[in-house]
Amino acid sequence: MAEAGPQGGSPFATTSLPGVQHVIAVGAGKGGVGKSTVAVLAAVGLMRRGHKVGLLDADVYGPSLPKLTGTEDLQPDLGPDGRIIPPEFHGIKLISMGHIVSPNDAVVWRGPMAQKYVKEFLDRGQWAPLDYLIVDLPPGTGDIPLTLAQTIPLTGAVVVCTPQDVALLDAVRALRMYQKLGVEPLGIVENMSYYVCPHCGHRDEIFSHGGAHKAAQELGVPFLGSIPLNIALRRHGDMGRPLANFTEVEPSVLATLEEFIGHLAEQVQQQAAQGARLPTLEIT
Ligand code: ADP
C-alpha cells in the first residue's frame, strides 16, 4: 500500500500528469489583454526562482509563445520511444502549436482537433521532471477553452485582465467558467494596470485601475498583482527576449513581476498543502 497525492503521483503534486508537480492554466475572458505575456512572465519568473518549468501553448486561436520566447525557428523532436521532446529556452521546455502549424492554420481548428493535439502534447511530451507546467489557454469562454480546460489535469487557473469594466466582465465570466469546471481559481492578475512615464515618472491610469482587485474581492478569489503597461515589456515581447523582462526593466517593474510570481507560487503551495492534508491511499 503506498501513499499518494490527491490524484496519484507525488504526495505534493496537484496534478495527475506523471513527473509534473503542478499545472497552471493562464486564461483570459478575451484576447489582447496580455495573457500570453503573463504566461511567459510566470514561466521565466518561476524558473529564476530555481524551479523546473515547462510551457504549453494551447492558444489555438493565435499561438504567440514562439514569438514571445524567441523560439520561432525551433521545433519539437521525436525521441526513439515516440515521445515529443520539447525545444527549450533558458532551460524552459516549450511545446507550441505555433511550432507545428502556422497561426493562420491554427485558427480554423475546431474543438475536437484542438483537444486532440493538446492531449497528444500532454501525454506524449517529454515534460518530466517539472515543478510547474504553465499552460497558455485560448481566451474566452467558448467551446475550445472550455474543452481544453477539461482535458488538462489542472492545479488551478490564473485569469489575466485589464482594468476596464468591459474587460473585467469578461474576466469574471472566465473565472466562473473555471469554477464551474471545478478548476481552482488561483487568482486574478491585472495587466496594463497603469503607466509610469519613463522620462518624468508621472503615473497615468490609462484604462482605470484597481478594478481587478475589487472584482477578486467580490468573487472571493486571490488577487495576484498588478503589472504596469510598460514599453520595455512590449519591446522584449516583440523581440522574443523573455529573460530581459526581469533583467532589463526598471526596478519598480521588476518588483511588480516578483510580487505576482510570489503570490502565484504561494497560491499553488496552498493548493498542495490542502491536498496533502487529505491524502488518498492507493492499493497496489
Ligand atoms: P494575449 O495573449 O492576451 O492576446 P499578448 O500577451 O499576446 O496578449 O499581448 C498582446 C500585446 O501586448 C503584445 O504585443 C505584448 O507585448 C503587449 N503587452 C502585454 N502586456 C504588456 C504590458 N504589461 N506592457 C506592455 N505591453 C504589453
**Poorly predicted tracts of residues:** 1-9
Helix tally equals 10
The secondary-structure class comes to: alpha/beta
CATH class term: Alpha Beta
Oligomeric state: single chain
Query: Would you tell me the overall average pLDDT?
Result: 88
The topology string of helices and strands comes to EEHEHEEEEHHEHEHEEEHEHHHE
Give the proportion of residues in helices.
25-40%
Number of strands: 14
Q: Biggest sheet, in brief?
A: 8 strands, mixed
Q: Domain count, please report it.
A: 1
What radius of gyration results from the CA coordinates? 18 Å
Query: How much of the sequence is in beta strands?
Result: 15-25%
The CATH architecture: 3-Layer(aba) Sandwich
Small-molecule binders: adenosine-5'-diphosphate
Topology, element by element:
Elements: E1 2-4, E2 20-28, H1 35-48, E3 53-57, H2 65-69, E4 77-78, E5 84-85, E6 88-89, E7 92-96, H3 103-106, H4 111-124, E8 130-136, H5 143-151, E9 156-161, H6 165-180, E10 185-191, E11 195-196, E12 203-204, H7 211-219, E13 223-227, H8 231-239, H9 244-247, H10 251-277, E14 280-282
Parallel strand pairs: 2-8, 2-9, 3-7, 3-8, 9-10, 10-13
Antiparallel strand pairs: 1-14, 4-5, 6-7, 11-12
Structure explained in plain terms:
It is a single chain. The longest helix is centred in the C-terminal third of the chain and has 27 residues. The N terminus is likely disordered. Helix 1 packs across helix 10 and helix 4 runs parallel beside helix 5. This protein is α/β, with parallel strands linked by helices. The radius of gyration is 18 Å and the shape is globular. Strands 6-7-3-8-2-9-10-13 form an eight-stranded mixed sheet, with helices on both faces. It has a two-stranded antiparallel sheet with strand order 1-14. Strands 4-5 form a two-stranded antiparallel sheet. The protein contains ten helices and 14 strands. Strand 4 and strand 5 form a beta hairpin. The chain has a single domain, classed as P-loop containing nucleotide triphosphate hydrolases (Rossmann fold), CATH 3.40.50.300. Bound molecules: adenosine-5'-diphosphate. The site of adenosine-5'-diphosphate has 17 residues, from helix 1 and helix 8.
